[in-house]
Amino acid sequence: MSGPRTVSGVVVLTDRRVTRRPLAEVVAAAVAGGVRWVLLREKDLPRAERFALAADLRPIVAEAGGTLIVAGPDPLLPTEPAAGGVVGAEPVVAVHLSASDPGPPMGADLVGRSCHDEAELRRLRTEDYVTLSPVYPTRTKPGYGPALGPAGLAGLIRLSPVPVLALGGIETPAQVRACRQAGAVGVAVLGAIMRSPDPQQTAAELTSAFQAASTSNVEEDR
């Protein structure tokens, strides 16, 4: 199967521990707000619970034409037909690896990896995209850094052999625009959506900011 090869726009990372509503509801709201890429983290859960969560979230994202990416080398894919023997569309095998994870599983359609500096970028081999972090100080990982800032992000993007998602402390439309202007093909956000009292509205605002910045970049390149 051939899956999508380019992640772009606003990518939502999950964290059920900080949401105001059940995670599936927050993800559904983000998708309604325009998000088409969701990265399932929740790596503290036992595999069975994480597998069930992936099964809940995958159709929510897929019905909007999006993709669920799973953090770690295990894509958490079903091995049995759906109830009643009806098999739905084959899910995209999409995984996101940490900087220290081994190579991706066989048959993965889309592979991302977390990177933080030039040395990690130079170790890339078959990945389709990377995240670079932290761009800004982040409440999710306080003290993690130092923050790259837009200038540092732009410098590493120039060295990256694959498309880059900006990650870390991105919560406002202005920050989204700065990351896009630095050359990121997308922004990965966690707290801005997970903690939002209105995830759909927040997702829509961040998605609109990214699209506007992308249009501006195209016009400037002409």
Task: Characterise the protein shown here.
- By secondary structure, the chain is of the alpha/beta class.
- The protein has a single domain, classed as Aldolase class I (TIM Barrel), CATH 3.20.20.
- It is 35% helix and 16% strand.
- It has helices spanning 23-32, 47-62, 118-122, 149-159, 173-181, 191-194, 199-221; strands at 9-13, 37-40, 67-71, 94-97, 110-115, 129-132, 164-167, 186-189.
- The chain has an 8-stranded parallel barrel with strand order 1-2-3-4-5-6-7-8, surrounded by 5 helices.
- Helix 1 runs parallel beside helix 2 (47-62), helix 1 (23-32) packs parallel to helix 7 and helix 5 (173-181) packs parallel to helix 7.
- The longest helix is centred in the last third of the chain and has 23 residues, at 199-221.
- It is globular, with a radius of gyration of 17 Å.
Summarize the structure.
This protein is of the alpha/beta class and 222 residues long. It contains 7 helices and 8 strands; from the N terminus they run E-H-E-H-E-E-E-H-E-H-E-H-E-H-H.
